[in-house]
Amino acid sequence: MLPEPAASIVLPSTRFAGREAFAQLVRDALVAAVQQDWREIFFCDASFEDWPLHEEAVADALYA
């Protein structure tokens, strides 16, 4: 589940534990990218199997 678009996203600088925590951090980062008008995002992974990129809410956030 993505955070509300009106909420200001502050990305953590600490470690995370587990797949769900990772997936939520990716979701939060994508919302922050939209809110802060990031010009580029680079994703690097061998398989992307643990990334939430397939989620409809993630795609919707990028097109917001």
What can you see in these coordinates?
This protein is mainly alpha-helical and 64 residues long. The chain has a domain at 19-62. It has helices at residues 19-35, 56-62. The longest helix is centred in the middle third of the chain and has 17 residues, at 19-35. The mean pLDDT is 85.
- Percentage of residues assigned to helices: 25-40%
Annotation field: number of helices: 2
Overall mean pLDDT score? 85
Please describe the biggest sheet, giving its number of strands, its sense, and whether it closes into a barrel.
none
How far is the N terminus from the C terminus?
15 Å
Strand content: under 5%
Kindly provide the radius of gyration, computed on alpha-carbon positions and rounded to a whole number of angstroms. Answer: 12 Å
By secondary-structure content and strand pairing, the structural class works out as mainly alpha
The count of β-strands is 0
Question: Which consecutive residue ranges, at least 5 long each, have pLDDT under 50?
Answer: none
Order of helices and strands: HH
Shape call: globular
Descriptors:
single chain, 64 residues, mainly alpha, 2 helices, globular
